[in-house]
């Protein structure tokens, strides 16, 4: 069972992409599209104040007839952001994401943002961990200790 800290160390892309609450939804969607990501953390200075996702865009802009260039991110962001600590296990993260239907979790150390993990990061890590266990069991069964 890996911790979030271990998962973050193994990620190829460690940049956490952000946006200000006063920026437009159009700017948020452009940033997500440019980087092929599904969410941006909304920051005021060093403080996480929300998260904006493609799902927010679909449900709170398109379906409500709003205009992306005229709508500030703060109007559609999710402001109650769940987060995890570096010592949280991948299994605890998976349970939290499943229970709350989340796809992204900021990683906080005290008040400081240290990373962001996605459901894809977790699935990849869990599959890798299970593959390692399978290989070890195969070696054991064949007597190749």
Automatic annotation (TrEMBL):
Domain CBS: 12-68, 77-132
InterPro entries xrefs: CBS_dom (IPR000644), CBS_dom_sf (IPR046342), CBSX3_CBS_dom (IPR044725), Diverse_CBS-Domain (IPR051257)
Keywords: CBS domain
SUPFAM superfamilies: CBS-domain pair
Keyword 4Fe-4S: no
PROSITE patterns hit by this protein: CBS
Name the UniProt record assigns to this protein: CBS domain-containing protein
Provenance organism: Noviherbaspirillum saxi
